[in-house]
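Weekend entry, working from home. Most of the wet-lab plans are on hold until the incubator is repaired, so I used the time to fold the two sequences that have been sitting in the queue since the last round of cloning. Logging both here for the record. First:
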Amino acid sequence: MGRKKINGHYQQISGDFKNGVYQGGLGLIPLKDGWYEGGLNGFLTPHGQGERTYTSGHTLAGEFVNGIYTGGKGVIKFKDGTYQGDLNDSLQPHGEGISRDKNGNSFRGEFTNGVPSGSGFLKRADGSTFSGNFYGEKYMGGDGHIKYSDGSIYDGKVNAYFKPHGYGRTYAGSVMNPTAYVSGTYKNGAFIGGNGNKKYPDGFEYTGILDVNGQPDGKGVFERSENSLYDSKSITLFGVFKGRKAIGDASLTYKFRDNVYEFVGPVNSKFNPNGYGKERVNGGEWKYVTLKGSDFNK
């Protein structure tokens, strides 16, 4: 009569025999709900380092003592997801591991008796990510990368409720080349204004005081540079601003190739000289002039 194959495996053992009695060693043992491969005692029971595989998809790798798993690494399938990593003797996540739920969310980090506890990295199905410390499954805050329904993204500090809290940046486009952004201080998810930075879709970048809506609201500077293989030009405007409107006189510097034009006085909404002020070219003498929207900013 041939050997019986169980769950795709035949029993295989190697080791020491004494008077025809197996004393233990290594083997592959088919089981009703899976199979085991690794160290064995004389009763063909898992003993020593081995791996227990279940037909359900569970795997347990680590130390066994007389058939009892004492901890190690494994893959555990739950009703709503899976876990892969370190386990304790109660088959709970314990140590380093990664869990994934059926909705596409995942957590990679430290676990204690089945729950995230310690440093970790949480990734949501929408692509948002959070790193920091967890205690008893509760996020304690840290760094976040949040994707919003309008396509904008926030990168920066977040609180325990996964909201922007501290210094951060909300932007559109890619992280390396955003088309627009506002950076500064947030509190419980809201931008609170103060010193910050703002980039506009037309390429201008502002550094200075911002209001709670992320708009220029005080002393600051607007800058834009355009460089190519053959040309380079830039514009810099210092002043006091309400939105993109300069309040009172501003200081304008326009550079084109090796030429530098400077103007101090009122400017229009396109940041062009617009009224009575003084100008100079390439570091020469200042001259008082009256200009009407001369279009240096093209």
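Second, folded right after the first finished:
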Amino acid sequence: MRSIGDRVMLNFSHLQLFVLRLMAKVRLSWERVPLFFPFGWLYCGGRLPLASYREVFVDEVYAPPIPLPPPERILDIGAHIGLATLYFAGRYPDAQIDSYEANPAAGTLLEKNLSRLVNACAHSVAVGAGESRGELFVEDFVGVPTDASIVSRDPRKVGTLVSVEIRNIRHLIRGPTDIVKIDIEGAEYTCLEALAPDPTNIHCLVVEFHDYMRGKEKINKSLSMLRRSGYRLLDGHGRSIELPFAPQHDAETIWAVAT
């Protein structure tokens, strides 16, 4: 059951989304917009992130599906312009959050959006299975693209290649970490394999798995590894996931919680 505070915040989120939709009807392109929830300027670099705001603040895809102790350290890998980080910062004001974004354009906005937070730090680098430089495919998009990946994906998409620094995901885990959120557009499979999460060190992961329709075996390989490591697999509603898993969509958000 939601607390009174949670219900109030959700009502504010619905109202904020309504205001953003009105603003989008007035003008399509916005470099920044004032928010009252969370309070402050949101730098968005063009088109308003209506779908992302709804997913994070209204649908609350990053709200733990079961009660968890208050986290002390959170990693947001694939932070884009920072909406998930803003959500975590508001929900867990005592947690230290490190946010990573590969797309340089989104990374610039991420730094601006997190600059008012005392408990969050932005890193404009890609995250992968090793330390290197690589090419990031950035899809052509009005505003700041949400589809940018260091792995080969749909050949039908049109975009550009950008040279980026890639950090080894294992090097980001410096001591016990409470929540690791991963949304890196298809690179999650190699990252999870390289990370080999340990429930005694990483207490909870929330991963958006992509490209199920183009590689149905990959998601079950990753989920099986997480289960063998000692994680309980849950969907966003707190329901246990049975393997083999057959997603209904080409992107699925799954929680792995230490048992």
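Plan for Monday: verify the second prediction. The chain is about 30% helix and 30% strand.
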